[in-house]
Each structure stands twice: as structure tokens, then as C-alpha cells.
Amino acid sequence: MCKIAYLNILCIATLLSCRSSVSEKNEVVAVIDYQDKKTISIDNIHVDNQFDGARLNGFSQLNDSTFQVLITPENEPINKSAWYSFKIWSDIDREVILNIDYPGYAHRYVPKMSKDRKSWTKILNKETNSNQFKIELSSDPIWISGQEIISSKDIEEWIDTQKKMAYVDHQVIGKSTLGRPMHLMKIKEEQAQNKMLIIGRQHPPEIPGGTLSLFAFVEEVLNDSPLSKSFRENVEILVFPNLNPDGVDLGHWRHNANGKDLNRDWQDFEEKETQLVRDHISQYAAEDWVYGIDFHTSFSGPYLLVMDSLSARPSLLTQNWISKIKEQSTEELDIRPRSQDLPYCYNWMITQLGMEAVTYEEGDEINRVIVKERAEEYAQLLMTVILESLEN
Hints:
Layout: E1 4-5, H1 11-17, E2 18-22, E3 28-33, E4 39-42, E5 45-48, E6 58-61, E7 66-70, E8 85-90, E9 94-101, E10 112-114, E11 121-122, E12 132-137, E13 142-145, H2 152-162, E14 168-175, E15 181-187, E16 194-200, H3 207-222, H4 226-234, E17 235-240, H5 245-250, H6 272-281, E18 289-298, E19 303-307, H7 317-328, E20 334-338, H8 345-353, E21 356-363, H9 368-391
Parallel strand pairs: 7-9, 16-17, 16-18, 18-21, 19-20
Antiparallel strand pairs: 1-6, 2-3, 4-5, 5-8, 6-7, 8-13, 9-12, 10-11, 10-13, 14-15, 15-17, 19-21
């Protein structure tokens, strides 16, 4: 007979694991499903969600060789991008079938595995992507995840490495809804007056674009090349690499700790994370800003979101950047215009700060070497375009 063990299967358990998130005005914002952090053991198989970035809401045995992982969102309504991440091992060497169940939602992320959380391999390829797969288990735990696990701590470690450079200044501008630090890196040499804004990881699972592309892009700006040095001498770069640390560490599909999509909060500014960025940026003169990028990940990629009215703007930075990309890159770049009325971050950069800006989207399953090389190349081309514009 199958053994069944689900987290939150009883009403009492659900009430214990879920609670309302409260805004600064003490208004109930949303009921958030806070996972019951524990190890679940069935038939000598063990699963664990006791790490930052984990998402595992239940575990059951369907038959002798098949086990099911239950994944539910932090709250609803929500984008249909079911995030999962858990650790699994067995008391004896054994091949099992794992089924990942997202009740009411579709499968998005190709499953990946790691023995050390550093090197990741796909369990399935994109063409045969499925929510069910075979896996060899042993007493050595492995991590299974929709994407690489890059937690707030991992991003902080990256910041620690970059801030060793003399021209990198690190600040904590405040705390997130649940009290996690909100980090800012300022990059410049000499007295650069022009400013560029970079934002990442508004949506927790969007690791290829939201973190890996951002890392590579910023590292290119930081290197010792004459181009990068000249750029830093002319442009100060402000980088917010992790705008949603609560959602990242809680294993959320999309939202912050209040159950809100931060990239839909750049008009009303109801959330602490967007408020902190807005308030910090307000100290700078609008005429100082030259460019902004908000890093994300999509089903496909690469593409840039641009505003419908961008072609009417006097500055041609984005058009020139796109032209250089198309001239030098073998990859097809998709340009997707959006209305300036939408409450996206890059629209706020354009309409309120007066700079040109884009949303930089990388694809879910693009080879990570390509992700890195593309971000480096795009950074080089954008720095070239901006410097050329400043000379004219």
C-alpha cells in the first residue's frame, strides 16, 4: 500500500504554514504559503527543503518506484512559472521516477541536478522536457531544481568579490519587507557625473537573465580593458543586484514577501523594495541619467523590451545599441515594444528619470556559456554607444 505524506494536507497544517503578510499600514496584503521547512522520509527516500531558495510543499509515494513532489505557489493569482527546488537522497542505491505536480499550473523549467550546488546538469533536455523523469539516488544528497540555486547569500558573496576593487563602493540602503539587506554597488572612477542604473532579480526564479547575465554584464564593466576604464571615468553605474531578497530565499515563484509582483509596482510604489530604490535614486539630478537596464528571464530569449514611443525620443542610444548587436552577433535579437503606461521598472526609468532604458531578457534554457558571452558582448557594445554619444 502506498505511503502518503503531504505537507499542509490538513486544515490545521495549512493554517500553521500560511499566514497573512502585513504592510507598513498594518493592512493584510496577501496570504503567503510559508513552506513547512523539514525533511520528509518515505520508503527510505528523503526529501528536504531546508535551504534558501527551496520550494517543496509536499511529497508522496504513488507506487513502488514512483514518487511525487508537490509544488504550490506562494499566493494567487500568479504568473504560471512554477518554481521547484529540493534536496533528495536514499538509504540504498536506487532508481526512482519523480513526478513534479503543480496543481492547476503548467511545467516550465527543465529539471537540473547538482551534487554540490555549483555544477549543474540537465536531467532532461529542452526537447523532451517533462515534469516526470528517472533519477539515480544514493546516500549522497543531490539537489534538483528548476534553475541553478543562487540565493541572497550567493549574491552577497559575489558583491564581496567585486567590492575589493578600488572603484566599487558597496552600501546597504535599507531592509526588505522581512528585514533582509538591500544592496547597492556604485561603480565609478574619478568624478563621473553621468549615471547608469542596473536592477536584477525582481522575480526569484529568473536566474539566467536576472542574475547570470547581470553578473557577466557588470563584470565586463569592471574589467581592466581601455573601454571599461574609459566608461567608468565617464559614467557612474548603480547596481541593485537583488531587488527581491525575500522572494529569492523563500523560494517564491514570482512575488515578494507581501505577495506582490515588484515589476508591476513602479507607479504606485506600494512595496518597501521599490520604495527604497525610488527614494535613493531621488537624490540624483534627472539630467545625470544616461541609461537603465532591468535584467529578467523569459521562456525564450534573448530579447529587449522597449517602449513604443522610444523612436520619438531625441536620443538614439537604444537604436544604436541594437544596430551594433545585429551587426556583430550571430544570435537573433527580438525587440518587443511595450506601452509606456505599464508599471514596469524600465518604463519608470524612462518616464520618471528621463533616461533611455530596456528590459534585458535571457532565455530559460540558453547555454550558460552563451548567456555569459552574450552579456559581455552586449556590455561592450553599449559602453561604446554611450561613450560615443557623450563625445558628441
